Amino acid sequence: FSQTTYPKITGYFGIMHPIVTFSRDETAVNFRDYYAVSFPTGINIWKSSKIGFSLEIVPNIKDDNGSSKTTSLLFHPGVLVALGKGYSFAGRLAFDSNGRYGFTPVFNKTLIKTNSVSYYAAVPLPVRFGNDHPASFTAGIQFGIAF
């Protein structure tokens, strides 16, 4: 039995695939219309066992018709809330280098926990505005490792 000391700092790295993006102009489906992938990397600072702060940086890559490029870099700070039984919620603000901004609710579940690392799955639900594009809503799936 070990006592956790707070604040507790953890780091993580993941891979995120947007699945579908809805806007008033179109419904775009990853893997069908293009291929997009993101690599969320961050630091969590847990103030207590219930609440914390997260600072995430996310490079985004897209391959469209055989041409791939880094499309943006996302600055993604947020509040963490432990929901119990391995579940947590991250409420993030979103500031993207492509000129878009918004917020991202993220629901996380720890799948496997060892003494040194945890493996997790998450469902990010980005909402974006700005840069002369209609508002959009995306549903994605993310897997990663926290240490």
Provide a brief overview of the structure.
The protein is built from no helices and twelve strands. It has strands at 8-23, 27-29, 35-38, 41-46, 51-64, 67-75, 78-84, 87-96, 101-113, 118-124, 127-129, 136-146.
Question: In words, what does this structure look like?
Answer:
The protein has 147 residues and is mainly β. The chain is 0% helix and 70% strand. The chain contains no helices and twelve strands. It has strands at 8-23, 27-29, 35-38, 41-46, 51-64, 67-75, 78-84, 87-96, 101-113, 118-124, 127-129, 136-146. Strands 1, 2, 3, 4, 5, 6, 7, 8, 9, 10, 11 and 12 form a twelve-stranded antiparallel sheet that branches. Strand 9 (101-113) and strand 10 (118-124) form a beta hairpin. The chain is elongated and about 55 Å long. The model has no long low-confidence stretch (mean pLDDT 97).
Order of helices and strands: EEEEEEEEEEEE
Distance between the termini: 19 Å
Assembly classification: single chain
How many runs of DSSP E, i.e. beta strands? 12
Strand content: over 45%
Largest sheet entry: 12 strands, antiparallel
Task: Give the class from helix and strand content and strand pairing.
Answer: mainly beta
Which residues sit in consecutive blocks of at least 5 with pLDDT less than 50?
none
Cα-based radius of gyration, to the nearest Å:
16 Å
Tally of alpha and pi helices? 0
The whole-number mean of residue pLDDT values reads: 97
* Share of helix, binned: under 10%
- What shape does the CA trace take? elongated
